[in-house]
What we know:
single chain; alpha+beta; ten-stranded antiparallel beta sheet; 5 helices; 10 strands
Amino acid sequence: MLRILGSACIAACLTLTPAWAEMSGTETYDLLFKNGTLDDVPRDAVLVYDREVTNAIKPDTGPRDTGRVVLQVEEGSAPTAFLRFEQGDKYRNLGKFPASVGNPMIMYFVETVARDMGESAGGSLFYIRNRIKDALVTPTDAVPGEAQFDGRTIATTSVTLRPFEGDPNVDRMQGFGDMAMTVTMSDEVPGWYHSLSAKASAYESVLTFETLEDAE
């Protein structure tokens, strides 16, 4: 994954007028990978995200990949974020990440979308990952909006990336070439990310923050 850049531009990116704010590639990356987003998450609680997947090319992978993603931060010599995927009573561990640099949900989101595309449409997973990484540092717009959270309306900022726009291989991507990846963020949502979605003609993956609940 790309290195985490500084966050000096974050305040400026979030202080938005009702108009869209055009950002440089560095500002886009800094906003998406904001530092410190797990600092205030209680260590006796977990962040719970709902993941829903539909895939027209491989329909059986939708139920396989739909479930809950649970994030827990544990203290130690350095705070560590642990991710786990759950389906009912079944679960699998997804890995551990340094919590000091921010919420690893965006890294999980990017990697699963790349993996799903590679598994379904074929082609080089290395190429797919690189196109998505390039999109993360492409100048784009920060779009102010609103969303429902915890029974109230909150202010949000959204960024939409189109990693394969203009790609010479788009016609060979089996309905993934028009993919739009949208990240919606808010300081009022624990962990920063309200939702992370990837939508294309043949595929949809949506991660939505569900709740903050007590750890087991």
